[in-house]
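Example record for the data management plan.
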Amino acid sequence: MNNSAVNTTLLFITVLLVQVLVCNHINFLGYINPYVYILFIMLFPIRTNRTVIIILGFLLGLCVDFFSDSGGVHAAAAVTIAYIRPVLLKFSFGMIYEHQSIKFSNTELGNRLIYISLFTVIHHFVLFSLEVFNISKIILILQKTLFSSIFTIILCFMSTILFSKKRR
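Corresponding structural encoding:
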């Protein structure tokens, strides 16, 4: 296996373990649950085939569903964000994405925050919509989306800052 495959495998296992062993046990006021496993999909290499990230997103979501006993909602939300990832990358980074030269450690903090925020809000909205699955409870869906998104955005943003290799 090459270095990239080893790093990807380690990131997959790390985010899965952090999600299952730590984050799944955080439930503050019934609304705040961080879902940091989406970092894997966010930070997956850009030049890789789109089908690969969709399949890996499905497998990651399925693993989280298995440990959370949540019936497939994480898998569906992970596939959704893996599918729309190129659109979010183009919106957040523009021409850098067009030239396929994104290195997250070298991007501006504002662009990175926009990308993480959009990614997280869309994931959480899909997740909680499928979890609640009742349009009459849209306020509950929006509350859970808002509060969990804020906490997840903070954790993901801090993780990308702490673990990035800044080279300038």
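Summary line stored alongside the record: The chain has seven helices and no strands.
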